[in-house]
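Hello again, I could really use a second opinion on something today. I've been staring at a protein lately and its backbone has me curious. Please have a think about how the structure follows from the sequence. I owe you a coffee for this, so here goes:
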Amino acid sequence: MAEYQHHLHVLRHYELRLLRCTAATQKPHPPTPQSYPATPLHTVITDALDLIEAGRYAEVLSSGATRKIFGIEEEFFSEFSDDSVNCADGFYSELMNRMGSFLVDESVNEMERGFRAVLVMCIAVSAFLGFTQCNLTGPLDGLPLCPLNANAFKEWENWARIQLMSSGSDLFGKTYNLQYIVFAKMLLMRTKDLLFEGSFTSMEGVRSISWWLARVILFQQKVLDERSSSLFDLLQVFIGETFHHFGTLEKVSNYWGAELHEEDLSSIVSMLHLEAGILEYTYGRIDSSRLHFASAEVASGLELSVTGVLGFRTVHQVEPKAQLVLVANTSTSNSTDTCLSTIPELPANASKTSENNSCVHQNGKDEVSDVLMMPRLLQNDYPGIGAQCIQNGGTTAVPLNAIQQGVVLAQCLLIEKRTRHDEMQRWEMAPYIEAIDSQQSFIFIVRCFCDILRIRWESSRSHTKERALLMMDELVQRIYACSPGVAERIHFCYGVYLPTIHALRKEYGELLVSCGLIGEAIKIFEQIELWNNLIDCYCLLGKKAAAVELIKARLSEMPSDPRLWCSLGDVTIDDACYEKALEVSNNRSARAKRSLARSAYNRGDYEMSKTLWESAMALNSLYPGGWFALGAAALKARDIEKALDGFTRAVQLDPENGEAWNNIACLHMIKKKSKESFTAFKEALKFKRDSWQLWENYSQVAADIGNIRQALEATLMVLELTNNKRIDSELLERITLEMEKRTSTRQPVSSDKKTRQPVSSEGANNDSCTGSAHPSDPNVIHVGDSTSSESGMGISRENENLVEVLGKVLQKIVRSGGGADVWGLYARWLKLKGDLTMCSEALLKQVRSYQGSDMWKDRDRFKKFADASVELCNVYMEISSSTGSRRELLAAEMHLRNIVKQGESFSDTEEFKDVEACLVEVKMKLESNLERAPPVVMK
């Protein structure tokens, strides 16, 4: 048992050394336990780790020990000497078979097998770090085309490209040494599978293999043009396993024990959370990303907050203005210190020649623009800040280690996603960027990431755009430079969201285009093989034919590259190019299928477009606009269920897609599912608040589910957005009728017998019910009387509020004119309010709106006129009954007689009969009123 524990201790020691090669700090590794015999295998592992720590990855891959593992001799290379994809596939398949034989050799014991697994991990990690060097950290030279220094065939690189693109996405630009990452992934996956298949106890000593696999697959995603669903599924598995083993300080401590100090423990946990946060951010899962970044902040001993301090942002600024400043409280500092984004001026004895001094970094750039790199702050009741004006580049700030600096910069990623893409977004990032700029020491990768964030910020402002261009040029040169060395660059490279070299150069090219330097941008896009950007540049210059010739020239050299065929199809608008791309990719080019689907949609072949989109999304289900396009094609093809599924998948990938939410809501409206439609419209309106059509649909479904308040508020928004020109009279009629029903129990409303029937509340006729006690019976105790009374008062207040909002809507309409229907609704609202005089005025305007020479020839118009007239005369009778006045009755009589006289041609209608009946009632009221009138005494 003791021997087994020692075996695990040594295995984990090697694991830790391998992991520390990419840690945030470079510390001397603890020596290998002396009690373990120095066997040839241990010597090979130690030598490999020494080379990896020195950044000499090619030497590890070409070493004699590596060749011995795979049984490689000169004759072996002669067997695979063809420059073909099939030859490359056979070569690497044979390597995996030989590696498997080496790993599961039955002639060695379990402990030896564990160390062999670690040695294979060293080789895989060497290949992966070599790929990272060529495509992320630089410098680009120093590595052969093939990991094992075999034949440098171009078709072998094409084989690696096919392997990477099998996930359903094209490569993004020109990626170097593709065989390295494919080789590393194959080794790690095969090793993990063999260890688990054999149920080896040695697997207990190599748990970090899941972490390395997660890194490899995430980097594969980084070099692809689109997010891949298959890679995401793998990442979820491997990052889950990694958290199971190393997700807490306790787990890390239990695994490595005395090998780690407390600071190392927090560093490993923080780094894991940062990498997991970047993973979630890459796939657009912002909430999960935020949680991981928050966990990294806690594990690193940081507490971040942003405050305001008076200061100067420009050279010529006279009055200080409020500046955002980051306050970073660190639990690792000796006292309760505060790290500001800008800090006091340099002491006279401070060194100003250090390569890493932020003062040097800023001073040269400040000369380019009047806007300071960091604001000069004034004292603002901050502890630890002197009374003097605070200068950038000081030395008194609390130093942050690399992990903490990474945590600070990670906040910029969250700001970019959770806020609107406007000028204020970059200013919210500013304090975090300036906090890192003010640090006295930082590792290479953090410096690069901070510069990229600053470049993106300053390139969005005209006063600092020139400085941003100079900084970008300097950054690209820094990546390609030989100094610092490879080992220094690799530290913490997976803990920040640094773009790949070709992605960085793409940003450089786009910045050049925005500055008008299109010629320089063309050179960059051609070098990194971003054909679409190249085509755009040539089109800006009016040289589209030159772009076509360039792509054709590249196709003569690389006829099996589906990206080139797709780009040629984009510029020539020829479906044959996309079909050729499918042919050379063995029907695996999702981009070609999407292009054919768009072409089919544009020519009206919606069924074909739907089929092609389904096929394309089966290859890569995470393409952002794919599900929306599938939904649109299905909708045109009258496939409602497929359309609904497509739009639903679209909002699952992009919850901020307002158009997709709107389409979901409309489809639910078609299916008569008002509740689901209401929910979808609420989401859609978060992102498309300026669409009156959305608000109008929302008001209708809100009314359908009985949410009157939301319906009225939506109607107000429609009026505001259309300047009172868009009026939904039918909806307002429904709402008014509902309000009349709700208020009928406390204020009976006279209603049109055909359209508005008063609805009594439940239990209104309680007295007539057999066996029911009268509510006022003193012998009966009503347990819920108090509660019912309070509930009734609450309902009454709510109804009163709704009536007020309805009035606000109607008043807004009638002030801008309004038609006959609106005047009728306004009159009914006034009647609800009890203002019969104004109600009669509104009804009179409604009646006059119907009047005209054409009315006596239009049967439908006459019917509406007659209904309005009857309603007007009913109100006149109510006014007369309450005031005793005869004037209203006389006006009603005259109006009704005129209708009867002129409307004889409509005597067969119900409305005409209602007018006659109303006239009879008015005459009876007049006679009754005359009889009650007191006699007049003549003097």
In short: The two ends are 134 Å apart (CA to CA). DSSP finds 41 helices and three strands in the chain. The longest strand covers residues 302-314.
